[in-house]
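Attaching the record inline, Q. Sequence:
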Amino acid sequence: MSEAPQSDAGARITELVTSNDVVLFMKGTPLFPQCGFSSRAIAILDHLGVQYESVDVLQDMGIRQGIKEFSDWPTIPQLYVKGEFLGGSDIMTEMYQSGELEQLFSDAQVASQA
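Structure, as predicted:
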């Protein structure tokens, strides 16, 4: 019986990452991040001006655990671009500082914030 919530969470995660160009699984919300790493990730995305969907893992324990299994990555936040797992806050920061993240968004034709 415990498998149903996990498979449900997996299906919801799959839907989120495939139906949005950029998805950030984070602790809290963009307006009120609940950890420094999530805050840094939001600051980077906002600075680059891309449209993104955010998912507050603190609101859903199935998603919180499921995303770690989905990506085989133990920490949150997690960034997905065009359905592909990119990494967490440290990887985002490194890619942002080198210009790679902005180039990736440009190459992937990610929409800008309205």
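The CA atoms of residues 66 and 72 lie 10 Å apart. Strands lie at 22-26, 28-29, 32-33, 53-56, 78-81, 84-87.

More tomorrow.
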